[in-house]
Amino acid sequence: MKQVTAKIIRNEPVLKELARRHARSISGSWLIWLRCPEIAREVRPGQFVMVRCGEKLTLPRPFSVHRVKENRVALFFTVWADGQGTHWLSRRKAGDSLELFGPLGNGYDIYRASKNLLLVGGGMGVAPLYFLGEQARDQGYALTLLLGAQTASQLYPEKLLPSGIDLVTATDDGTAGKKGSVSALLPDYTSRADQIFACGPRAMYRAMSPMPALKDKPVQVSLEARMGCGLGICYGCTVRINNGLRQVCQDGPVFNLNDLPAEELNPI
Ligand SMILES: Cc1cc2nc3c(=O)[nH]c(=O)nc-3n(C[C@H](O)[C@H](O)[C@H](O)COP(=O)(O)OP(=O)(O)OC[C@H]3O[C@@H](n4cnc5c(N)ncnc54)[C@H](O)[C@@H]3O)c2cc1C
Ligand code: FES
Predict the structure, then answer these.
(1) Which of 123, 162, 191, 232 has the greatest number of C-beta atoms within 10 Å?
(2) Cβ(247) to ligand 2 under 6 A?
(3) Which residues contact 64 (CB under 8 A, 6 or more apart)?
(4) Does residue 162's CB lie within 6 angstroms of at least one atom of ligand 2?
(5) Which of 219, 82, 59, 75 is nearest to 146 (CA)?
(6) Long-range contacts for 80-86 (Cβ within 8 Å, ≥24 apart)?
(7) pTM, two decimal places
């Protein structure tokens, strides 16, 4: 784990705002590129970094590593309409410095014997799956990415996705791809998959958990939790898994889906 000051190379909005009456509104989603050789060298897909979002906020914010290119690292983050940290981050400019530490946590684990990988991303879930998909593709795995969002304007742009990965999309309101949730696509794609890797809201895992099509498949999911320190000190990220308590920042964020009891899959 390294504590670094990274120079911002680029910080640009990628997805538009979304006003929501019954959920937190979104002011947009940004892609930020950082010059950060210490983290670029070490990080593995599914790991995250803690970013200090301004002097006034005492708690750093966790973000998955989205992409790695030579000595650069990208984060893909939602700016919450009421989110102080992400608002601050979206206002940083090229040339500004950012304090962060990482890489943290346990990432996704691809088995040597696997050939066909299925990635399932709900909303911002594409953040760690991009890095996983790009690295796995370069190692010769065959990949399918199921990507879902509430509406077309919140779907990660296809032109930014890595080439060589089969893409299938779904939106809740049917404005792009198949109408419905991304988890509803799963039964049609699981039979060929040796392993399934998911990242999305807990509601997505709740829908996936009882699916007969996933019963005998290894499914790894990245779990979000409210984090204070990211270092195993504050116990703020503790979750109950089937055989005891775990800290998402140290034991996760990636867990096996069948280790997570139903009560842990309620919204945080
Ligand atoms: C391992 C991990 C990886 C993540 N990766 C990404 C990513 O790649 N892209 C992305 O957009 N978001 C990601 N998140 C969620 C992101 O950390 C929150 O959206 C962000 O902290 C909100 O900060 P804020 O100051 O804008 O919001 P505020 O609501 O002002 O934050 C208040 C406090 O709550 C915590 N918090 C609020 N929402 C969350 C949440 N959903 N998860 C964890 N802590 C939360 C913050 O850390 C902070 O301490 C990740 C979370 C975790 C745990
Ligand atoms: S965030 Fe503090 S122990 Fe996990």
Answers:
(1) 123
(2) yes
(3) 46, 47, 48, 75, 76, 127, 128, 131, 199, 222, 253
(4) no
(5) 219
(6) 80/24, 80/25, 80/26, 80/27, 81/17, 81/24, 81/25, 81/26, 81/27, 82/24, 82/25, 83/24, 84/53, 84/54, 84/56, 84/57, 85/51, 85/53, 85/54, 85/57, 85/61, 86/53, 86/61
(7) 0.96
Among protein residues, the one with the nearest Cα to ligand 1's atom 33 is 226
Q: What is the pLDDT of residues 211-245, one digit of tens each?
A: 999 988 999 999 999 999 999 999 999 999 998 99
Range scoring the smallest mean pLDDT among 5-9, 57-61, 83-87: 57-61
Domains, in order of start, for the chain:
2-104 (2.40.30.10), 116-265 (3.40.50.80)
Ligand 2 pocket mutation pick from 1, 63, 101, 227 by most atoms within 8 angstroms of CB = 227
CB 197 within 8 A of CB 220: yes
Nearest CA to ligand 1 atom 21: 61
**Residue 13 C-alpha from the chain's centroid:** 17
CA dihedral 10, 16, 18, 24 (to 10 degrees): -10
